[in-house]
Amino acid sequence: MTIIEELKQIVGGDAVLSGKGERMTYERDAYPLEAAQPLATVLPSTTEQVAAIVKLCVKHDIPFTPRGAGTGLAGGTLCPGGVLIGVARMNRVLDIDLRNRRLTAQAGAVNVELTKAVAGDGYLYAPDPSSQGASTIGGNIANNAGGPHTLKYGVTVNHVLALEMVLPDGEIVTLGDKTEDTNGYDLMGLAVGAEGTFGIVTQATLRLVRQTQAVRTLLAVFGTIDDATQTVSDIVAAGIVPAALEMLDGVIIQTVEDAFHYGFPRDAGAVLIIELDGLAAGIDTLAARVRDVCTASGAREVRQASTPQERAKLWAARKKAIGTLGRLAPSCVTQDCVIPRSKLPEVLRAIAGIGAKHNLRIANVFHAGDGNLHPATLFDERDPEQVQRVMAASHDILELCIGMGGTLTGEHGIGVEKRDYMPLLFPAETLRTMSDVRDVFNAAGLCNPGKILPTSHGCSFEFTPRGGAVAV
Amino acid sequence: MTIIEELKQIVGGDAVLSGKGERMTYERDAYPLEAAQPLATVLPSTTEQVAAIVKLCVKHDIPFTPRGAGTGLAGGTLCPGGVLIGVARMNRVLDIDLRNRRLTAQAGAVNVELTKAVAGDGYLYAPDPSSQGASTIGGNIANNAGGPHTLKYGVTVNHVLALEMVLPDGEIVTLGDKTEDTNGYDLMGLAVGAEGTFGIVTQATLRLVRQTQAVRTLLAVFGTIDDATQTVSDIVAAGIVPAALEMLDGVIIQTVEDAFHYGFPRDAGAVLIIELDGLAAGIDTLAARVRDVCTASGAREVRQASTPQERAKLWAARKKAIGTLGRLAPSCVTQDCVIPRSKLPEVLRAIAGIGAKHNLRIANVFHAGDGNLHPATLFDERDPEQVQRVMAASHDILELCIGMGGTLTGEHGIGVEKRDYMPLLFPAETLRTMSDVRDVFNAAGLCNPGKILPTSHGCSFEFTPRGGAVAV
């Protein structure tokens, strides 16, 4: 019996995708610069099926990789020649416990569905990546995802209470605890953000947050990026913590406006979306203070969403902004560095310089309040010379951010894209410790190999699977 | 040259305490039921000295244990026959960066001193354990300490950006990053709460929080514990997240009142301290809602602190409450379980039953909003029969809480006290994984042995040090 037949025995014939077209479908995620076809993609429906698939892979010495919705930006779900374990069918909300403010869902549940399940009762699941209409909670956990509201509400790890996980040997374990505490070593905290290299998350118990009583959403319009970034720093320095504080530059204002006709001023150098939430009684006072800071820092105009519908439309435009860049170029690579907030003006100027140096257009739409940049470099992936320039520009951007005291990723992970940059951030000894910790969970190196750590530090795409795999 | 002489060469003669009385001074922390004399206590002044001490211990195969202020409740700093490394002299604030809202301090800096260093500029360090006037940031990190304001602001790990740590082989590393992100595996998150078993924290970069514009502190008085615990659940279910929500029962109201004359009603069954913070404009509306919930849930009376001085006096009484139990008995053991908030009424009743069963007085003062209980059992440690009853009652309380879906510790750690309860909370496989992860950092088992994991899972007090140590 072939491995494909054995997989079909576990999950049924319709849940094993191994045809030529199917393998091509799953050869990449949202990172455009690398592709690698899996041997097969399987779509289990239960935790027990995931465990059986993993045990089968271990028996055959084949690598395996978990996959949510494939919205990851760093190639974390590439699985050359291995078994890609898609959790899309494991998408149910299993339990809602409002009294203790928690919810349990399967790993394939789509982020926005969690909030929909409790919105009627006045609650929400706070982390809101821009991909939330598609991305799964399993993928969010693997990448410790953030979102516009991370500024006030924190990233995924701040909202995970417990995980059910299939370890790389196929054992099913529970990590963490449904009360908000850690006892012993924080293995759950370690698994969040491990990009599926410690095992496959199959189920999560998550914190719920009460909807705030009142929200005010402002749009501040600036002539220059410099004025906008300085305003970000000034708002936070004034002691105000907005629920969200996002920036869009002039390039992306144009494409977003072309796509959604929200009413952004086409001649602006940059806009800030500033959302405030809290009690109804104090919120207009706070909004007035924010307006004053914006005006003092050079805002040309400060608008306010006047209805919930207008607010929803503004956020839809923001969250789908990256997609609108397709109007300018067939491909874009989005970086994800984080820098100290106080360095925003300086770093944005330097990124513009990097674009000029490599003759590439770079658009900026990002979580300004967190200092979490998303410079999006536009190009045509069919032109190898452009690809070389894009990679050179990405390299310059990452080195710039690290030089400014920043990091490689805020929310989208290291994946394959940034693993070889890890030595810029960590000394060899720390990388060895990380590798040793991974070996505790993943000694055979079959569970999502080639991610996070530089290739010299462990299993990578040099890995040669049995079974006639195609690695691109 | 003896080890003591070698230690003196590293830190100077006045920083090595190895006389009989000195060893007795350091034979215990705030856990009253076990004591163990170190070979010596050393008080280094620099990270390099800590590294040199650790290397010396490794050379001589002697265990070593870090110690902050010794306020830990679970015996996490007992160091039988080993070298106790006290960080009390490493107490400086090294850097304050308000623009990026962070502060760097040495491990021996006392918690409250951090807030004092930035209060004039309108900031604070949020985690506020009741021991904050004495406990060090190093000890807070080792135990992932909480405090009354944990309910709204989170525990220590939510406020640590980066750590400087001396690994168990004497190497000095930096974990985490000064921007608020994790890249690669979260070794820093793993080290926080590891009770010094992964190395010795020597320096930490911490988040600062802006002081809130307005605070309201209410005292709600109840005839019964039942009414008070039900009110806790009702406040949170109403969608209100107080900054703090604390409960004191009738026993402790008496002793606190005897000690501080705050004006607590001596005939009350329980009181809640409810603190609200936020914008000035909305806060009185919110306070009125909380009053309404309290009254609807049976509060006899709801008072409000009318001046900052009155608020400070109320918090001082709360934070020093455990100490006032010395008026009733020479010793007390304070438990630290966490239960789902919705089970508070049921668990408090059961704890009263456990007190009656073992003929012991149990007082309750705790972080009610988090479900983090601190039942304090009063006894005389000179009476072995009482000690036996106390240990039996502690056992019953821990089993009760775990049976209710709770955990062993909210903020004070596992230490030696609760290590043998870990199998009630975790399957053997998970404990083995924890032990394997510890071995990555602490393979020789010399760094704070015998803590966190059950004694069968690693180095423990069976460890026989060289050098004529006395283990009690």
UniProtKB/TrEMBL annotation, chains A, B:
<protein>
    <submittedName>
        <fullName>Lactate dehydrogenase</fullName>
    </submittedName>
</protein>
<dbReference type="InterPro" id="IPR016169">
    <property type="entry name" value="FAD-bd_PCMH_sub2"/>
</dbReference>
<dbReference type="GO" id="GO:0071949">
    <property type="term" value="F:FAD binding"/>
</dbReference>
<dbReference type="InterPro" id="IPR016166">
    <property type="entry name" value="FAD-bd_PCMH"/>
</dbReference>
<comment type="similarity">
    <text>Belongs to the FAD-binding oxidoreductase/transferase type 4 family.</text>
</comment>
<dbReference type="InterPro" id="IPR051914">
    <property type="entry name" value="FAD-linked_OxidoTrans_Type4"/>
</dbReference>
<dbReference type="InterPro" id="IPR016171">
    <property type="entry name" value="Vanillyl_alc_oxidase_C-sub2"/>
</dbReference>
<dbReference type="GO" id="GO:0016491">
    <property type="term" value="F:oxidoreductase activity"/>
</dbReference>
<dbReference type="InterPro" id="IPR016164">
    <property type="entry name" value="FAD-linked_Oxase-like_C"/>
</dbReference>
<keyword id="KW-0274">FAD</keyword>
<dbReference type="InterPro" id="IPR006094">
    <property type="entry name" value="Oxid_FAD_bind_N"/>
</dbReference>
<keyword id="KW-0285">Flavoprotein</keyword>
<keyword id="KW-0560">Oxidoreductase</keyword>
<dbReference type="InterPro" id="IPR004113">
    <property type="entry name" value="FAD-bd_oxidored_4_C"/>
</dbReference>
<dbReference type="InterPro" id="IPR036318">
    <property type="entry name" value="FAD-bd_PCMH-like_sf"/>
</dbReference>
<dbReference type="Pfam" id="PF02913">
    <property type="entry name" value="FAD-oxidase_C"/>
</dbReference>
<dbReference type="Pfam" id="PF01565">
    <property type="entry name" value="FAD_binding_4"/>
</dbReference>
